[in-house]
Design goal:
By secondary structure, this protein is an alpha/beta fold. Helices cover 21% and strands 27% of the residues. A hairpin with a 2-residue loop joins strand 8 and strand 9. The structure holds zinc ion (3 copies). One zinc ion (ZN) binds next to helix 1.
């Protein structure tokens, strides 16, 4: 399995409009962060996680890959603002498959009501929404396990797929979710900045979760300019923890391979 970080920035993206801080002025490509999204590839099929306002650019920069489905963590604009741009993917039979919680499905109907009209305007994107709970579901032959987490007071989900756990926009991870990901190979987790924040983990809180879960490797995502430039901020990280950056592709060994080695 493979994961491509399509966007690793917080809701404003990095650089931030009208900011002259060292991160926003950095010439390091790794300090240019689009809104948070990722694409998982399993058996040559691509599954998108979140579809923010930079989705179109992210697809073009990734070579316009095919997509099997979209999994949505929650309905904040930086995670769903690009759904109208899914249009090229909506030609499939019953519409483009989207998997999300019921509250997110409701929010989508409010955000892009024309996509759900009884008689849709010609050419609007057609979506086929499956509402998820905490139960595992299957997308393109891959079992996906929702990971409930709290985004301040908003219950949202991360996703576990084989040996990968992807959690963004979490402030608190309940014990029951930690149990699901303990010892996982690859953990992607949000870490906004050094200072505390009401609805996101800061770097230390993310590191505390990583220390508890003990993945082989962890990647921090949903990063704000306040984290500091990539080259400097990376020096603060313990072994096995890295800052993600846009365009980074990581390979996740599947559980079957690991079992074979045991
Ligand atoms: Zn976000
Ligand atoms: Zn800045
Ligand atoms: Zn959010």
């Amino acid at each position: 399995m493979k994961l491509r970080f399509l966007g690793t920035g917080t809701s404003t993206g990095v650089p931030q409009i009208m900011c002259n801080c060292p991160t926003c002025q950095s010439r390091d490509e790794r300090d240019r962060r689009l809104r948070c999204s990722a694409m998982v590839t399993y058996k040559d099929k691509n599954i998108l996680i979140d579809c923010g306002p930079d989705f179109r650019q992210q697809m073009l920069e990734s070579g316009s890959p095919s997509l099997e489905a979209l999994l949505i963590t929650h309905s904040h604009y930086d995670h769903v603002g690009g759904v109208d741009d899914l249009r090229p993917y909506c030609a499939m039979g019953d519409g483009f498959p989207i998997y999300c919680r019921a509250d997110v499905a409701g929010d989508l109907r409010d955000r892009v009501p024309y996509c759900f009209a009884e008689v849709p305007y010609p050419g609007v994107p057609a979506f086929n929404i499956t509402e998820i709970t905490t139960k595992p579901f299957v997308v393109a032959d891959l079992e996906v396990i929702p990971l409930p987490v709290m985004h301040h007071r908003l219950p949202i989900v991360g996703f576990k797929m084989d040996n990968l756990a992807y959690i963004t926009d979490a402030k608190k991870i309940p014990d029951s979710t930690l149990e699901l990901i303990r010892g996982i190979d690859t953990l992607v987790i949000n870490g906004l900045r050094i200072k505390d924040h009401i609805s996101h983990m800061n770097l230390q809180q993310a590191l505390d979760v990583i220390a508890e879960v003990k993945p082989r490797v962890a990647y921090i995502t949903h990063i704000s300019h306040d984290m500091g430039p990539y080259a400097e901020a990376s020096l603060r990280l313990p072994d096995g923890v890295r800052l993600a950056y846009d365009g980074l592709v990581i390979h996740i060994p599947d559980q079957f391979d690991q079992d074979e080695n045991n």
